[in-house]
Queue: 3 jobs
Job 1
Amino acid sequence: MFWQFLASLAALLIALYAVAWWFVLRFGRRVSPSPDSGPIDVRDAIEYARRALAEPGPQHEDLARLWAPSSASDVEVLPEGRVFYPRMLEDIKGAHHSVHVMQYGFQPGIIGDQFAPLFAEKVRDGVAVRLVVDSLGSHAYTGSRAMFNSLAEAGVETMLHDLFPPDRRGPVGTRRLTARLRQTGRVEHRKLILVDGAVAYMGGAGLEDHFFDGRFHDVYIRFTGPVTRQLQAIFLATFAYHGGRLPDGDGVLEGYFPPITTEGPHAVNVIMNWPRGWLPLTDAALDLIRTAERRLDIMNYYIGDSRVIRDILDAAGRGVRVRLVIADQGHANGVTYGAFLHHYDALLAAGVEIWEYPAVVHAKVIVSDDRVLVGTLNLDAFALYRNPEMGLRFEDAVVADRFVSTLFEPDIAMSTPGRAASGRLRRARNRVFAQGNYFY
């Protein structure tokens, strides 16, 4: 009888938690932008950061902002961890003022054990090192706990975003509970590295071994130019959102924003999703697909949203050459891959080229004519509608062609054409996965 009571109680608690979880994911209060919600120019970025860092810190809706078009210089497309990790480490070693990192996944290992000691070393050199990481993706309370505690002792300020309640504020080592539930039900999925506020990296990979040894295929771009000021403002606002503060003193904040000397040759726009309901990045991705006229190249691990599928089919119907690069069956997630497989018949019949790459395709890139969207946005429900996400939209034929020649063409040469699933049971399973994709 006692065990039956415990089982019933456990079932009730699970049910209540499931209801609460569903409410947070789907029906939570939507973000409304702050009254001062005009697009923030690169020259206004420092004032936005100043307001965010002032006591008592930014409100949740203060991070739901639009960013004015800007420019970038020296844009490099760096596929594969064996290419982009050494460049990141080299730039961080040369930092003389600050290193700011925003990450979903940062764990000990071959890669983590190169970055973590370097962060501590730079602090000893007098460089400010700050991290904003997702606690779930980085295993902050399990396998990575000792690493983050060690970084805290070394003076690295690490802020954790928590999927599960309650919210906590402040850096690792001094975190305190709050009564808010601003983070619950979503992960911090943005990835950004800023060195001295002047050199930036954005892409889809964590600081983890599987992006280095070939199991996960991803890309980062390295760039400089005025747009880095806006990214610095976003990082500092997020840092303040989690309870972080800069040292007091005149001119301290200005040191994180190097002066603008020249405009960059590549037109670019920073775009960010912020929960709940602030979805400019989702709108930008859909717009690129819907307005493509000549070419549409998409590389993504999670392609499952029904609107995205319909828009891809419409593009093919307009005569656009559409190429999708995804993971092959041996490396794909079973549920999301099955959901996407359900649409193979319609996609292939419409003339869409589906290329299956022999690794986990984790990059998130859309090339539409002479435009590119690159960043952290997967094409599934969590990324499109729930998580903090960030990307760069380039309106530049040079950058678009660079992605095609450096990333898409070599990857397609290594891939095999996709084939629709066969067998009633398998096709029925994929149909179920597709219908339930909202949860994934």
Note: The chain is about 35% helix and 20% strand.
Job 2
Amino acid sequence: MNIGPIATAMVTPFQTDGSINYTATELLIEHLLSTGTDSLVICGTTGESPTLSTEEKLNLMKFVVDKVNNRVPVIAGTGSNSTQASIDLSLKAEALGVDGLMIVTPYYNKPNQRGMIAHYEAIANATTLPIVVYNIPSRSVINMELDTVITLSKIPSIKFIKEASGNLDQMTRILAKTKGDLAVYSGDDSLTLPLLAIGGSGIVSVASHIVGNDMKRMMEAFQNGDHTEAARIHQSLLPLIQVLFKHPNPTVVKYALSKVGIQAGNLRLPLVEMSEIEKQEFDVIWDQYLNTN
């Protein structure tokens, strides 16, 4: 599975009654595929997966797989803090035709590194799909250590890691020690260009919902050796990326999508909509970005 340089962690649009808005979801898919997205990640953190029921997740997976129709890979977030529950959802996702799985490090129960390895081994042994390991210590509390990543990289179906530790030194060591066995993707939009510079493969992005084409241009400029242009785009993107994560994700990006004609709907509690002042703060940064690009 080649997920390309930009995998978008897709929001889940909701109706005013809180149910999934499939009409808006289809519009969002087409918007993303036309603005630089190379693959879609659904039922992840940005998709408000903690508030989706298993039935909703499966219905959403089937809908996205059908609408994408093999145009790009569809990766489903099926990990949780229960190994067996992760296996059960992964097998159901596989049966629905997703192309890969994103498995987050177990949260709350805080396994040690041996437990983490056993968790991923059990899931990998249960499914034939390629797996994206998702390290996000800010949410799971535990950090996946280098030796653990090296061990997991030897499992044939574990092909990728989404590194959301924000630690470039850690990412550098992973790249050096796994020697091509593992494609390293940033989980932080602001580190897209820095990660490319040390040998990373791309980004699992939130910002690509609204600036996917610009992110693609930045990455292509870097790959083509135009580092000055890549740096210029990165510098212009940074204030917008920072404001996208000023409030709990996906609070801001759902509002931001309205700026490009996509109505993603409200959030599910315990997330709440931005205040009018917060929206105005975003609008200022958005207008500045448009006026300088």
Note: The mean pLDDT is 96.
Job 3
Amino acid sequence: MFNGTRIFVSGATGSWGTTLITMLLEKYNVEEIICFSRGELQQVLMKRKFNSSKLKFVIGDIRDYEAVLAATKNIDYIFHLAALKHVPVCEENVQETIKTNINGTTNIVNAAIANRVKKVIDVSSDKAVEPINLYGMTKAVGEKIIVQANDLTDYTRFVCIRGGNVMGSSGSVIPFFKS
């Protein structure tokens, strides 16, 4: 379903984004992938790593609706991966976590509807199930925002997937447990 399409990936330079983009480039003949993230250095490193004309790098923050709206113009699919996800960081930066994980998700939904994107795939977390910390709570709210968005449009479809502690992902708890 991704052949010949334009795909937007929020949080593209993270470990999940890098893996997703690798898979999309290897398995599908995509027209273009918009790699959207705040990290200038990470984008430069990713651009060098992939060296692909199918990747377009856009510096932006999902907390900025106008930036998300502009970057998702003429997009077929959105993968929403951007989030503040380190539990202690989230606990110490409550407002920033809410702005990114809740308001940012709302911006993705509104931009997708405005730009008539076919489908939004939101990557949530197992921490959203009976959350015991702010990170889990914001991901649970994000899931509700995504699922409810299906009632706002007859065109764009919204789905959530949940990941867990993934070995090798940035911020994985496994290296911490090992040490």
Note: The chain has a mean pLDDT of 93.
